[in-house]
């Protein structure tokens, strides 16, 4: 067949160290699995090795599950592949394959999907070092997000390696698997990507296959009737052709399949299953509920079979083509068989089987339950073992979140809350109700589901009040403050942050000061956190992260002095020895504090210090290989250079950040890096490139509901439109920025918006010089109060132009002289009228 010839050619190319990616797409039963098996056989003829992983609809919460299965198969066949692999890569592999170094997958440094991808890439290279390697990932339409991202990552990097990556997917599910659809579209531009679309057989091809399967039939009339029946039932689906021919041939005279396709399929397969022995039917019922490749030991334990009886059952199921081997495990030969077999089970049976599987797994895998927590969670949930289900689901969510698989994490936490609702209220369930919702809020935020994130915190308030636990109450207050802050409500968030910090100090160290802004906090932090706060679980982490957010909120509100003090407190408390501590945040708080200080110093024209702290933030994020934090740090450093007027350096840094952001799929940071880069383009004389980027960023931020950057982006867009010569749109954006800044109390951002309104009035076709001067004076007052020297210089420059046009030459000279003095003092170049002035932001989560 043509598809097999194409696959054979791709395999030959891969064996010649020209790696290829093949995507086999088609409906269920059309022959994707058979074609993948054919390529595995061809690879064996060429001394190649095939490793297989499969995704399942019920196992999407298990991040990288298909890759884990495939890589385990590869290491089982070639244990020596690990030799020579650098310890750093072994450490990353251990996050998903704990057996790689025999220790727990948990590590003190933050997990990073990009590093895991690179580690897998190194392992695949080692597995292909001796023999060509075929990696088959089946049913990737059901794969988790990280599995798809890893496939795309590897597919772009196997050009010079003897590796063939084969993906199979059901065409009807591609519309639902958005990330997979995007990944396949991206790979289509790769010169070594081979798409194979399998379609149903034509009527002539169906007839040919039917007659090849019914060679013993000699009666022409009977053959014609068989052709019609098979075509009517199968519609050209190869699996149904085979099953229908077998069913029609073996059925008693006059017996026919039903009229609807699902019913016919169930009848065909059910008739086949009815001929199995009772132990085999029992094993089939258990295997249906296992939901993925079945461990032989688990099936045997659940069915209560001796070794000999289990072996006989497996032999029967394989011979009857109900099961086939997948490495050392067993699975149904096709999902249609699984679906048909499950149709005969009643709810009471399924619940009992899930309970049996869960208790059996605990007995068999008792020393290694972490690797099976997702599957255990599903079985406990479906078996209505609610207490265990909540525990395992929460653990599965935590493990997914550690790997930055936040969609899978959120799904697990959501299911845990459903299970929690089935349990009677107790101290334990109230604690879980708060803790799970706090974790769910974090994952929702990571995927930009801000409304759901905030609602989750609201739902945690009642159980938190019932508990009366001061630490959980402080943690909830802090996270609620974060939710308000990111939606632009820093004034509402600040009291919550301060209350959380004061609460922690009051119960952890009664003698500690309660004012979160007091300078006496800094020396106390030199010693107290480890000795006092560290004795109470999580208190140091909570106080440190909350103090960081106090700085972020104060910065947004234009209270730069307190913001600087808060950022320095965090830097002083953590130190670089604790740079890898996340303290429950998405990124590294030490880097966030360094970045916040960088932005603040740049706003005040303290550029030398800003460069020092900016370089530190990037260096720490790079050393710990944490993409989220690195992108954030690069964005702030790029802004600082833009404020200073060093546009080439700013653009280089921001372009790097944008590339990293796209590669890592960081949705929450994408619009921020995009707007900053677009603004730098505009200031560098390319507003035609800058304006579209900023407009896209603004649309995304508004769609997400993020507002902490909203005024900043509007101000950037206003100046970009002004540089493009459209004063009308510039004034409109500046008005929107001013209105939002005043509504939210963001006084520093308000100053920047006023300055842009002054510039727009000055540059209009019919300039309103008095209006321009009024806006500049308002901006100048706010900027001087906050020590925003670059903005002060811009305002004096604008006032000089307005005064000169009004004929007030003395005032014009005074303002011009003052602008030049400030620029010389802080090291800014002498600009044209509209010199660069971004308003940097405080750090997000």
Verbal overview:
- With 845 residues, the chain is mainly alpha-helical.
- The protein is elongated and about 110 Å long.
- Helix 12 crosses helix 13, helix 28 (607-623) runs antiparallel to helix 29 and helix 37 runs antiparallel to helix 38 (809-826).
- A 5-stranded parallel sheet has the order 2-3-4-1-5, sandwiched between helices.
- Residues 104-108, 254-262, 510-537 and 833-845 have low confidence and may be disordered.
Overall mean pLDDT score? 85
Q: Total strand count, please?
A: 8
Instruction: Describe the sheet with the most strands.
Output: 5 strands, parallel
- Rg from alpha-carbon coordinates: 32 Å
Helical residue percent?
A: 55-70%
Strand content: under 5%
Morphology: elongated
State the strand order across the main sheet.
2-3-4-1-5
Distinct helical segment count = 38
Euclidean distance between termini CA atoms: 54 Å
- What class do helices, strands and sheet pairing give? mainly alpha
* Uncertain residue ranges: 104-108, 254-262, 510-537, 833-845
């Amino acid at each position: 067949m043509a598809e097999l010839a194409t696959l054979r050619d791709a395999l030959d190319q891969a064996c010649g160290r020209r790696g290829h990616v093949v995507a086999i797409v088609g409906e269920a039963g059309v022959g994707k699995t058979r074609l993948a098996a054919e390529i595995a056989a061809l690879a064996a003829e060429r001394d190649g090795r095939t490793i297989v992983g499969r995704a399942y609809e019920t196992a999407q919460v298990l991040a990288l599950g298909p890759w884990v299965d495939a890589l385990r198969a590869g290491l089982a066949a070639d244990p020596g592949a690990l030799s020579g692999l650098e310890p750093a890569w072994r450490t990353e592999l251990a996050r998903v394959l704990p057996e790689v170094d025999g220790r727990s997958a948990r590590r003190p440094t933050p997990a990073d999907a990009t590093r895991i991808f690179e580690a897998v890439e190194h392992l695949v290279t080692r597995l292909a070092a001796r023999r060509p390697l075929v990696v088959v990932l089946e049913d990737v339409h059901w794969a988790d997000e990280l599995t798809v991202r890893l496939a795309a990552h590897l597919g772009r990097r196997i050009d010079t390696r003897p590796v063939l990556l084969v993906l199979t997917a059901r065409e009807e599910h591609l519309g639902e698997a958005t990330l997979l659809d995007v990944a396949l579209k991206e790979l289509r531009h790769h010169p070594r990507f081979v798409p194979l679309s399998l379609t149903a057989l034509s009527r002539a091809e169906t007839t040919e296959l039917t007659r090849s399967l019914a060679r013993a039939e000699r009666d022409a009339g009977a053959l014609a009737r068989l052709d019609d029946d098979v075509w009517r039932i199968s519609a050209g689906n190869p699996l149904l052709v085979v099953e229908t021919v077998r069913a029609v041939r073996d059925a008693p005279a006059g017996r026919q399949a039903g009229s609807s396709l699902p019913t016919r399929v169930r009848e065909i397969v059910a008739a086949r299953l009815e001929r199995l022995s009772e132990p085999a039917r029992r094993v089939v019922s258990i295997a249906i509920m296992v939901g993925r490749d079945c461990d032989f030991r688990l099936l045997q334990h659940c069915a209560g079979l001796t070794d000999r009886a289990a072996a006989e059952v497996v032999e029967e199921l394989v011979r009857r083509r109900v099961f086939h081997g997948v490495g050392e495990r067993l699975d149904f030969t096709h999902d249609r068989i699984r679906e048909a077999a499950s149709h005969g089970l009643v709810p009471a049976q399924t619940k009992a089987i899930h309970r049996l599987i869960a208790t059996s797994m605990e007995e068999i895998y008792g020393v290694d339950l972490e690797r099976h927590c997702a599957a255990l969670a599903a079985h406990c949930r479906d078996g209505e073992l609610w207490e265990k289900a909540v525990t395992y689901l929460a653990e599965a969510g935590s493990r997914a979140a550690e790997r930055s698989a936040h969609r899978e994490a959120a799904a697990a936490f959501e299911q845990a809350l459903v299970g929690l609702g089935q349990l009677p209220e107790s101290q334990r369930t109230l604690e879980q109700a708060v803790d799970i919702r706090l974790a769910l809020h974090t994952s929702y935020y990571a995927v930009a589901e801000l409304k759901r994130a905030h609602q989750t915190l609201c739902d945690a308030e009642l159980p938190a009040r019932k508990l009366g636990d001061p630490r959980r109450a402080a943690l909830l207050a802090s996270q609620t403050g974060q939710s308000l802050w990111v939606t632009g409500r820093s004034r509402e968030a600040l009291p919550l942050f301060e209350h959380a910090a004061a609460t922690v100090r009051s119960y952890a160290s009664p003698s500690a000061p309660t004012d979160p802004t007091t300078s006496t906090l800094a020396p106390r932090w030199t010693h107290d956190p480890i000795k006092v706060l560290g004795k109470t679980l999580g208190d140091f982490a909570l106080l440190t992260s909350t103090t960081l957010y106090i700085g972020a909120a104060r910065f947004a509100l234009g209270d730069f002095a307190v913001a600087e003090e808060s950022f320095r407190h965090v830097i002083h408390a953590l130190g670089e020895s604790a740079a890898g501590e996340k303290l429950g945040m998405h990124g590294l708080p030490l880097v966030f504090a360094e970045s916040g200080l960088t932005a603040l110093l740049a706003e005040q024209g303290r550029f030398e210090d800003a460069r020092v702290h900016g370089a530190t933030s990037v260096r720490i994020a790079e050393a710990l290989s944490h993409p989220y934090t690195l992108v954030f740090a690069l964005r702030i450093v790029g802004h600082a250079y833009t404020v200073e007027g060093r546009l080439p350096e700013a653009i280089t840094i921001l372009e790097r950040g944008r590339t990293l952001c796209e590669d890592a799929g960081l949705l929450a940071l994408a619009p921020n890096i995009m707007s900053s880069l677009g603004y730098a383009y505009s200031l560098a004389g390319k507003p035609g490139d800058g304006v579209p980027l900023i407009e896209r960023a603004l649309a995304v931020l508004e769609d997400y509901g993020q507002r902490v950057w909203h005024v900043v982006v509007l101000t950037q867009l206003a100046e970009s439109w002004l540089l493009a010569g459209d004063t009308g749109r510039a004034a409109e954006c500046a008005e929107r920025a001013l209105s939002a800044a005043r509504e939210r109390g963001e006084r520093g951002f308000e100053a920047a918006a006023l300055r842009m309104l002054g510039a727009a009035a000055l540059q209009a076709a019919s300039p309103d010089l008095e209006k321009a001067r009024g806006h500049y004076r308002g901006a100048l007052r706010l900027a001087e109060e906050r020590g925003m020297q670059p903005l002060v210089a811009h305002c004096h420059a604008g006032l000089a132009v307005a005064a000169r046009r009004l004929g007030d030459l003395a005032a014009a000279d005074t303002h011009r002289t003052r602008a030049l003095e400030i620029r010389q003092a802080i090291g800014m170049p002498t600009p044209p009228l509209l010199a660069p002035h971004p308003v940097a932001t405080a750090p997000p989560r």
